[in-house]
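Consider the tokenized backbone below.
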């Protein structure tokens, strides 16, 4: 006849730890599925030949199409700090936003014009763009310094005024360089999340094994009549 007399304190801590490990494994599986869907959406987003098509078209999904049209750029540029393959400054300018219909009020669109390294050299100019929401400030971003043209937070209103434009006329999206799959997807692909999930589930299984082994060794788990 099997018997089991669990150790109370060990059982409580083991159940809590097991719940945590399993939840972490499930979370990583959800992240894997989410990133797989995002990669599929990026691969199927298509391309357009004008900014008007990108801004006014009926596009669905997480990513807008790649824009291969030239950007009508003129005027001063701002320097927005970011990290790509290396730290540097994204050059940002304003272009007239194409109207979607005759009743649309004139507007402007922030657009990336190049990437400048920390030595002041322009090392990349966009050949294609994609429309995205304006970047959110990082948790540890420094304050902007308009006097030296150093921007660490993408502040639409402040940046628009620095370019002598009414902020109300500037869209809430911008055209950034389309440089391929976003780093958030390429640096940690779905396969890595699968590996993390296997690790958490493996630790959960090991915890169960240790828990049962301790009860076997202490005589609290077994079959009556057998040592």
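A designed sequence for it:
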């Amino acid at each position: 006849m099997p018997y089991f007399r669990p150790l109370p304190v060990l059982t409580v801590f083991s159940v809590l730890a097991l719940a945590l490990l399993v939840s972490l494994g499930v979370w990583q599986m959800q992240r894997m599925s989410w990133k797989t869907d995002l990669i599929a959406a990026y691969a199927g987003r298509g391309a357009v030949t004008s900014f008007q098509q990108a801004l006014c078209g009926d596009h669905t999904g997480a990513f807008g199409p790649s824009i291969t049209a030239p950007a009508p750029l003129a005027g001063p540029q701002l320097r927005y700090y970011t990290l790509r393959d290396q730290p540097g400054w994204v050059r940002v300018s304003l272009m007239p936003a194409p109207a979607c219909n005759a009743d649309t009020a004139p507007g402007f669109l922030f657009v990336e014009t190049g990437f400048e390294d920390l030595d002041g050299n322009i090392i990349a100019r966009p050949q294609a763009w994609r429309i995205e929401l304006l970047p959110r400030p990082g948790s540890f971003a420094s304050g902007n310094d308009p006097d030296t043209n150093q921007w660490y937070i993408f502040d639409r209103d402040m940046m628009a005024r620095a370019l002598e434009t009414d902020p109300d006329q500037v869209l809430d999206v911008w055209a950034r360089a389309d440089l391929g799959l976003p780093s958030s997807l390429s640096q940690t692909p779905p396969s890595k999340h699968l590996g993390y999930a296997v690790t958490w589930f493996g630790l959960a299984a090991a915890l169960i094994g240790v828990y049962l082994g301790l009860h076997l060794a202490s005589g609290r788990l077994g079959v009556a009549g057998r040592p």
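Helices lie at 8-43, 51-56, 156-162, 183-186, 190-217.
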